[in-house]
Automatic annotation (TrEMBL):
Listed cofactors: Mg(2+)
Keyword set, alphabetical order: Magnesium, Metal-binding
Name of the protein in its database record: ATP/GTP-binding protein
Gene3D superfamilies reported for this sequence: Phosphoenolpyruvate-binding domains
GO molecular function, one term: magnesium ion binding
Domain of life: Bacteria
One Pfam family in the UniProt entry: C-C_Bond_Lyase
Residues spanning the membrane: none
Residues the record lists as binding Mg(2+): 201
Length: 388
């Protein structure tokens, strides 16, 4: 797998100063947690699930969740499990395919060993399980079941807990809940690939739903939870985890109240005015703004429910040439003693010690998503992906 692998090599060469690396499900966890990118959810009941997985992989999807929880009716769980097992076994019989990182979102801890047993050798296609409504009390049985399944099969399995419990939202229980979550995931640190935010569930506790003109950060009660999750679970001191951005619910807008949030000039410069209109029509201007705010607030990657959301997430994950140059300068061995230096672009101050953690994360993101050429911005990346 590699990000933008669906784009022709000669196009990638034009776009990238440093191309995205290749990786597999067996790559180091630190790289995989960064490379998750846009994680596309799909109901496990889909009749053509195996074909859907291959189709999305060919379009640039590198991580998928096959959902047995909220995306399907309670009565359809047995059918979903049976379909999941059958389709993954179909895929496992084919030796000529590359599949994304695949995770199963389960409802109960007991489903983990049961599904692993039923999958048999096809379990090798799974990278792990998504654990819903995660708290310390509720989550520990899931983590214990996953650890036991890994030991029984000898196959590495990761957990991705979803932070969506009302206890995490309510002010009076939030800190205690976060402390418990940290104890649980810290105990199984080697098995936790990333923490996922369930913002839709947060909103439902108050009967809220953000519109296509609003981001999660415009809903203050949600923004406050994101801030506290990052504060306690995503620190850059070695104790933190990758936390992914919330789902964007919209893929077409019939009517909007506010002006579009995409400036015209980046699109005029590369003659992509039609692309801008298409993005606005499909509510992508709000998505692009939320992705940018995710990054500014310490989140990486995003839960996606529509294939059209994948490319914007990946395009805005590419490291700019300016970011890459700054990060390299900050991390030069001779800078070990600290100090302040003017950036190579002569437009900012780089302070070595305070910016070191940022620089290290930036270079890891550069490895996963690549570094754009000096004259390439997100518009060119989007245009190249859409025209492929």
């Amino acid at each position: 797998m590699r990000h933008f692998g669906q784009i022709a090599p000669e196009v990638r060469k034009r776009l990238f100063h440093q191309e995205p690396c290749t990786f597999t499900a067996d790559s180091p966890a630190r790289l995989l947690s960064t490379a998750l990118g846009a994680t596309l959810y799909s109901p496990a009941t889909r009749p053509r699930l195996a074909d859907d997985i291959l189709k999305q992989a060919a379009r640039g999807v590198v991580s998928m969740v096959l959902c047995l929880e909220d995306s399907i009716d309670d009565a359809d769980v047995p059918v979903g499990e049976e379909n999941l097992v059958r389709r993954l076994n179909d895929l496992a019989k084919r030796s000529d395919i590359d599949v994304p990182l695949l995770f199963v979102r389960v409802r109960t801890p007991e489903q983990i060993p049961d599904l692993v047993r039923r999958l048999g050798p096809a379990v090798r296609l799974l990278s792990g399980f998504v654990l819903p409504k995660f708290t310390e009390t509720r989550g520990m049985p899931f983590l214990e079941a996953l650890s036991a399944a890994e030991a029984a099969t000898g196959h590495r399995l990761f957990a991705m807990p979803v932070l969506e419990s009302p206890d995490l939202l309510y002010r009076e229980s939030r800190v205690q809940t976060l402390e418990g979550i940290f104890r649980a995931v810290d105990k199984y640190r080697d098995r936790v690939l990333a923490l996922r935010l369930g913002v839709t569930d947060f909103c439902s506790s108050y009967g809220l739903r953000r519109g296509p003109d609003m981001t999660a950060y415009d809903v203050q009660i949600v923004a406050s939870v994101i801030a506290d999750v990052v504060n306690m679970l995503a620190r850059a001191d070695g104790t933190g985890f990758t936390v992914t951005g919330p789902v964007w619910e919209y893929f077409r807008v019939q009517e909007r109240m506010f002006k579009p949030q995409l400036r015209q000039s980046p699109f005029l410069e590369v003659e992509a005015v039609e692309l801008r209109s298409k993005l606005i029509e499909h509510a992508m201007d709000g998505l692009l703004r939320e992705i940018s705010l995710d990054r500014a607030n310490g989140l990486l990657g995003k839960t996606c429910i529509h294939p059209s959301h994948v490319l914007p997430v990946h395009a805005l994950s590419v490291v700019s040439h300016e970011e890459f140059t700054d990060a390299q300068d900050i991390l030069r061995p001779e800078r070990g003693g600290g100090g302040v230096l003017r950036s190579a672009y002569t437009n900012k101050m780089n302070e070595v010690k305070p910016h070191r953690a940022w620089a290290e994360r930036t270079l890891l993101r550069a490895e996963a998503f690549g570094v754009a050429n000096e004259d390439i911005g997100f518009v060119e990346l989007l245009a190249a992906g859409l025209s492929d």
